[in-house]
Design a protein that fits this description.
This protein is α/β, with parallel strands linked by helices. 42% of the residues lie in helices and 17% in strands. Bound molecules: nicotinamide-adenine-dinucleotide (NAD).
Length: 363
Amino acid sequence: MDLLATISIGQGGLDEVGAFARERLGGTAKRAFIISNKKVFGLYGKRAEASLRRAKFATSFALCGDGERYKTLRSAEKMLAAMAAAGIERTDAVISLGGGIVGDLGGFAASIYLRGIRHIQVPTTLLAMVDSSVGGKTGVNAAFGKNTIGVFHPAAGVLADVDCLRTLPEREFVAGGCEMVKHAAIGGKKLLGRTLDYFSDRDSPGSALKLADLVRDNIAFKAKVVDQDPFEDAARTDGRSRKILNFGHTLAHSLEKVTNYRYFRHGEAVGYGILYAAELSKKTCDMRQKGCRIVVRCCAQRRRSAACCGHRASDGLRGIPIRQKEYFRITSDGPASGNRPPGHFVRQSDPSQNCFLHPRSIP
Ligand SMILES: NC(=O)c1ccc[n+]([C@@H]2O[C@H](COP(=O)([O-])OP(=O)(O)OC[C@H]3O[C@@H](n4cnc5c(N)ncnc54)[C@H](O)[C@@H]3O)[C@@H](O)[C@H]2O)c1
């Protein structure tokens, strides 16, 4: 399947979401059920609804809580009940309007409602545009882990309007930037160089255009990887496996879970995960020092974000109000880890190389 052909990226596209959905869903779809949250729906819901109505959809909506802790089976069940109350049928569709949480939750609800109805993604965060809306992974978190309940349910279409990024808070923008660094680190030198260039000077004239181009290239990159391995075949170990997109995510998911999904934005945790993976690769797989330095530099550009504070805890803390500082380190092999096996958190009183600021320190 040519995934890229189902994706529309541009400025001002939100007002065309109705026409886009009609084109992707065909004439049989009568109802569009919007899943969003209060904040995003307040900003963009009316425009999306108006556009859908112009394209002859009957619209209804349900709003979920804002935050990772609402990406649960309980929220999904509420969405399903609202869909049933709105009379959604098998030929109708769910429209997720929001960030990755709304996208994952809406996609999951669509995938199980009446054994699966179609889903359109309208991502409004940088992270959702460049990553989560593309590739068909949907799901919710559980007590036993993040994204541990879910299915592959590729969206019938994705419409990304980069104008929506204008209202995105800086911290969310930065978190999305970390997923861009992930793509760039695995995508090759050219994308990495451009990403570094953009984040080094975001205030330069023409940076909006650079961003739009980068969003487009990130989506194209992810779509290409997903096309080669759409359902992440567990048995595959070759270089074209989709697993490469999980770079940095082992640590990221652990960080999110041990902090009850309350401290890190997902992208920030990925930023840490990338740094950790790069360090490990340098030590264990002989990753070149230069490659590692570039990845670290790229992540460290995002200083304004509280939690994604770069290689050393002190790097990212300028200008950020901090409570009493606490640090932690993640054990790897070697004498410094004492008796602890690799991958454990160890509290430290002082900052040092390879340690991170504990999220508790950030108000
Ligand atoms: N399915 C996948 O392949 C995939 C990939 C990566 C991440 N994810 C998931 O994505 C989630 C993170 O997504 P996220 O970073 O977009 O977080 P999010 O959905 O929580 O959105 C971040 C915040 O921005 C607000 N917001 C959204 N759009 C806005 C806008 N245009 N203007 C102002 N505020 C806006 C939201 O209300 C929220 O408070 C995680 O649950 C992660 O697991 C999924």
